[in-house]
Structure formats: structure tokens, C-alpha cells
Amino acid sequence: EKRLNAQPVGATHERVNKYSLVFGRETKEEIDHNIALSKEPLPPLDTTLLESCVEDWAVGSLDLGMPKRGKWSYSMSKQKLEQAEQKEFKAWCDKLDEYYHDLGGGSYYERNLETWRQLWRTLEMSDIVLFVCDIRYPTIHFSHSVYKYITEELDKQVILVLNKVDIVHPSVSVSWKHYFERKFPEIRVVLFSAFPSEQKLVENTGRRLLKKQNIKKPSWAYGADSLIQLAKCHYDKKKEMKDATPDTEKPRSFEGEESSSEDYVTIGLIGQPNAGKSSLINGILQDKKVSVSKTPGHTKHFQTIFYSPGIRLCDCPGLVFPTTAPKQIQIVSGMYPVAQVREPYSVVRYVAERIDLVSFLRIVHPCAEEEPTQPWTAWYICFAWADKNGYHTARTGRPDVYRGANSILRLVVTGRLCVRLLPPDYSPDGMSDSYRDIMQELLSFATNKEGDDSDEDEYSDETESSEQEEEMEKDQKSGNKFSLLKDID
Prior knowledge:
Layout: E1 2-3, E2 22-23, H1 28-38, H2 62-65, H3 78-103, H4 113-125, E3 128-134, H5 138-141, H6 144-153, E4 157-163, H7 170-183, E5 188-191, H8 224-244, E6 265-271, H9 277-285, E7 303-308, E8 311-315, H10 327-332, H11 345-352, H12 357-361, H13 378-389, H14 401-413, H15 433-450, H16 467-477
Parallel strand pairs: 3-4, 3-6, 4-5, 6-8
Antiparallel strand pairs: 1-2, 7-8
Helix pairs in contact: 1-11, 7-15, 11-13, 13-14
């Protein structure tokens, strides 16, 4: 196992890393195989690989989709309860690992029991659950097993929030809304964007790199009114039921607290890391009340905040739910920290097989003068991008291929180079009039909020500033001279 974002502390401060992400570690054979594959010629571009549905990456059974909380009673001690949960969780992990072994390969999934406990606690205290998904990768962010568990076993309402709709074109957003409403008729789907005025909606998503946006304070959020209205309706129904039924003993959850208060409605936010749950809360409140970060796993513990006296929001840490999706798309979708990817070249190959990465980056083949017919590989793309941006190793002065690959992945994860999945048989012309009205609303909203076309300028080397460069600048300002000796070859 590999613990991500862990702090280097002594044994006396082990609780500092209690809630860090924990994933399985790749083997040396797997890394060597992916590096060798990245040096193979790229196949012809196939945009049909972007089409996806929920069943494509679902695990074999609902029991494997998430670990469920075991039976317990108030007579059990804390130590006995934790030991029982640890035993059941380990048995679930072993069963899931065996399932992945039979498939011939596995995916990342959360192996930290403490993070799953945060999910259990959030679901217990919530009256409504918002399942937040990135609009670029909704089928991999949405877990059918978790959805079934909430609606059938917990008997609670689920609202699917397709977040970050400002990154893709409205036709893609509306198509995904239509897909999920048709696939799950009982679910409510809400399109949301915490920063609708900060990003430019382009007709052909991914045709160029967008400028880096420095967002300091949330603006008015698109879709916030719909979520609040649904919460108010649920609150009114809950108040009516309270007035119509006699007082009874309220159910209690673990730690002896009430599972939900009758004085307000609790809205729980769950989803994968980097789906935008904390940003969604800030967008609803129109202020930065919750800390956010581009690094997955930033939220360590569930946190609550009141929108109004009758509505309480509960932000749950992101969890990577079990899936059969390849690890490459999990990294692209932001579930895994880019800085800790041991082998990024296969991920670049995964992207290059689906979009014209060479044209977007405007790079020249390293062997163009000697062998003009030399085909492109993922390794050559990373080499050319590193050479174009001046990423060279300190000792030999050669282009830093690893840093080039890392930079490309950051562009994809942040949305500056947009890679997005599409519903099966995607066709904007086949939508009904109601969905066309929503698309026109998104288009008109973007036009009114964005003003001029200054943000549509094509990418230039002068505007590119990766997080690695920012870290180097901080090291230089802090006097860390040894940071200049870092050499990744």
C-alpha cells in the first residue's frame, strides 16, 4: 500500500496522517511494461474511445462497490467496535483484490478505513445526498453501488450534481443530464458551476489550451438556486411530517448523536476526490467558507456549515470508489495526485489516443530533421514538450521527459487541456426541446457573464506556469539552494 500526502512525522504524531489517501502500489514489472509501451508508435486517433456508459466500469457486484458498516450496538466498547470494523474492511479489501486479480489488473480504490468512516457518518446524518461528479468524467465518478446503497438500504434521496459545466460545451453537459435522467428515472440531475464566469465555453471543447485562471473568490454559482429549492422543499415536507406525527424516540447513530435533526435539513456532499465538493459549498454560500485545493485528498474530515437556519451542508472527504476503469483515466480525472505518479508516460499515451495532443501542444517531432517519417510516441511527445518549455535536467542538460509528462497531465487535470467523456451515441441534434432550452440557457449565461473574447487567446509559452515551477520559485525565495539540484531523469 502507498499512503499519499503523508507528512514526515515521528511515531508520536501518527494521527497526522490518519486521513491521508491510501492506494495500492504499482509493481516494478507493471511500471517497466508501461514505459516500454509509451515508446511504441501511437495508433490512429479514435474519438469513439471517449464514449462511455455507467456499465463499462462497474465492478462485478454491488457488495464490492463499497464496504458497508457492520452491525453494532451501544453495548460494544470503542475498541471492540473498531476491531470488528477493521476485520470486515480487510475482508472486503481481500475480496476486491481477488476480483481484480481474476480480471488481470486492478484500479485505484480507497484503502483507508478512516476515510470510509467519514462517508458512513456523512450518510447517517444526511437527509439529502448530493452525489457530485465532474462533468468531464461522470461515468467514472458515479458509483452505481453507492447509489443503490443510499436509495435502497438507507432510503434517502440522491441528487446527482454534474459539476464544472463551465469547462465543457453546453451540448455535452445537457447530453449527460439527458443520459442519467433516462438511465435512472428516479434521480434528479442538476448542472452546476461554482465559477461560471471564470472559464470560456468554447464550441469545440479541447481545441486549444485555455489560459490559467487565478480564482480568488467564488462568484455566483450556476445551479445553486435549483439545489437550494430542492432542499427547501424537503425541509417543508419534513416539517409537515413532524407536525402530523406524535413525538417518538429519535433514532441515534454512532457516538450517541441524533441521525438527523428535525429543526433543519442536512445535505451531504459525497463523491470522488477533486470532484469539486468543497468548491460547490463555497459557490452556494458565495464566499470561501471551506478550504479547497487542486490536490486530491485535501479535505481530511467531514465538515458542516449552515446555509440558513433550516439548511445545513455537510462536506465529506473524497473517496475513490472501486471501479474497473484503467488507472490512466483515474489519474486524468484527478483522483490521484499528479505529483506522485510514478510513471506518467502511459497516461500521456492514453490521452494522445483520444485527442490530437500533438496539434494542441504545437510541438515538433525530435527526429523531424533526421527521420521525417518517424511516428509519434508518448515518449516523444513528452520529450518535445519538455524541450519546447525549457525543462532540462541539471546534470546532463537533456530534456526532462518526466517533467514534460507531468506538465501535460497538469494541463489535463486542471481543464486547460480538456479531455472529456461523451455519452453513448452522442448527438447534440437528437435532444428534445426541453433539453435544448437548457442548452440555450447555458449558452446565454456564458455570453452574458464573459464579455469580450480576451480569454480565448491561444496558449503561449509565456502564460504557462506549472505547479512545479511555482514550487521551485518558493524554494528559491526560502533559500533552499538544494532544490536546484533536483534531477529527474
